[in-house]
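dumping the sequnces here before i forget
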Amino acid sequence: MTIKDIAERCGVSVSTVSRVLNHHPDVSQAVRDRVLQVVEEVHYVPNNSARDLVKAQSDDIGIVVRGAGNPFFMEVIPVMEQAILQKGYTPWIHQINTEDDELRAGAELVRSNKLKGLILLGGRFDYDDTQIAVLDVPFVCCTYGNSFGKLKETQYSCVTIDDMKEAKKAVEVLIGKGHTKIAILLDSTCDSSISELRYRGYCEALKEAGIELDEGLVQETGNFSMEDAYAAMRKLLLRRNDFTAVFAIADSMALAAMRALHDGGKQVPMDVSMIAIDGIPMSGYVVPALTTLIQPRKEMGEEPVRILVDMIEGKANHCHVILPAAVREGESVRTLK
Amino acid sequence: MTIKDIAERCGVSVSTVSRVLNHHPDVSQAVRDRVLQVVEEVHYVPNNSARDLVKAQSDDIGIVVRGAGNPFFMEVIPVMEQAILQKGYTPWIHQINTEDDELRAGAELVRSNKLKGLILLGGRFDYDDTQIAVLDVPFVCCTYGNSFGKLKETQYSCVTIDDMKEAKKAVEVLIGKGHTKIAILLDSTCDSSISELRYRGYCEALKEAGIELDEGLVQETGNFSMEDAYAAMRKLLLRRNDFTAVFAIADSMALAAMRALHDGGKQVPMDVSMIAIDGIPMSGYVVPALTTLIQPRKEMGEEPVRILVDMIEGKANHCHVILPAAVREGESVRTLK
DNA sequence: TTGAAAGCGCTAACAT
DNA sequence: ATGTTAGCGCTTTCAA
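..and the predicted 3d for all of it:
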């Protein structure tokens, strides 16, 4: 069933049918009604491929997700989809591995589907001019900025929390409760990404409090998986026995680490306190409930869409949004006497 | 940058380029190399719209996910994607709400994107002939069958666990450890879906053990959210104080319920034992670790793809796969003396 | 207000 | 082994 069939059944030309379907004004009411009626009758559905082919662009917006399995992303994506739909666009989700290049993947997605814009969820932090040049549509980085790259503020958009500041805030919560022997559980200290930024916040907080950085308390996991977070925590426990608190850079890592502490004979928070960043629902249900900094999930999904659509429709230029994270008091942090 | 540009740069015709791009055998190695080199050089990406338009069908397979947010689905989807890619097809994921009609959504997806087949993840259990008639491509139901519908075995494919049997198995674990006052936490006793089937398994196990069904211990939540599972468990605790075990029909519900028990002054497993079905990674890290029946995530993702592709390629007809679930011993079930 | 016709980029006959 | 060419279904000038 094509537009041609509809045209024949209505006794009009294909262009008239096309006009009706695309809500063009210059069609007589009589013809419009007739066409819509037939369309309804035969359950006609336009062929998207043909539509997109002839149009310079589709009305699609791509979401490139780097590192699925991240529970926080799984919370944000549905919000984004909804927001995109609401703005009259169609979301195109594409998941890639952490090792893959999201700019390449994004560029391919844009080209092969004539996307109008791109949201990059969880990408790298170190783009330079040549790299973003491959993207010839507006784009917004979500959950990360360009802290390790050479871009000017006017060259890209992003929606993030202030990773360094919030990590510092988390560690300061621990320090405020009397902790000085504070371990950190992170992906890597030098991944030019979230992990590195939060590591800096950790260092900063210690420094300001006059606590010397103890490298033996810095435990890398190599990724964001619970499995490796568990193993890393066990490793740290074998090596050291003198820390009273742990800052994990993600909720899921913290939960796995809490289990590792338990298996290592340590109680949370009596022996070791735990704090993290994310605020996934699950971390509020465990015992003890995780004390964590909540990322604003709703805004994290909606803001990038708003910004992107504004750029697409020429209403605004690149902009940067820093979202606040809020401490959610749980039961995993103890006040040291 | 189109196939024509590539052809010109290589000094060959468009069909030759097309052949190279589609891995046709009858192209000389020299020409093939040259074309691929240029393609690489200019970062040429084929236009999918044009491709799909000219082909009667795309090589796409749709996955309609009903009820995102289900942690188990989030585990299965990546496996499916990978399997689809590996078979040489492209996955098209579409999420819908629990209230939406997955058959309608699927049919639309198929038509507008010329899909070759459809996987329905977490749909309804009660299709009849007219309803599936709207689907004119092969399809496979995943995680559910047609237990409440009127379809013949030869009319549809499915990959599931035996919900009733496995639920019964879970409850029998509790009974085997001396429990007789066993509560159940479920979405609904009559949703014509997973929840109802597992409820039947619960009833069956009690009956076989000579335990009378106590309707006061049947607690509905109305959905699969942790929030409502928590509230429901609190409600049950207010009403009853005499049960020694709970069977939750999903891991996530069990975790929320364990928190509710804790907040209600009950210890797991000392005061109340807990068992569930799913086996999501998280439930192994909490304290106490959840005893649960693990659904085989890998097979649950791969089998539907295998079956669907076989049908698409005419190698097989509809078939039904019942996957086994295995008890994962945790620490949430206590043996009653 | 309507119709005719030219492509959009690609694949697959068909021809060579 | 390679080139030529006819569409796939649709939107959009341009003409009427």
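Residues 2-4, 14-15, 18-19, 21-22, 46-47, 49-55 of chain A lie near DNA strand D (CB under 10 Å from a C1').
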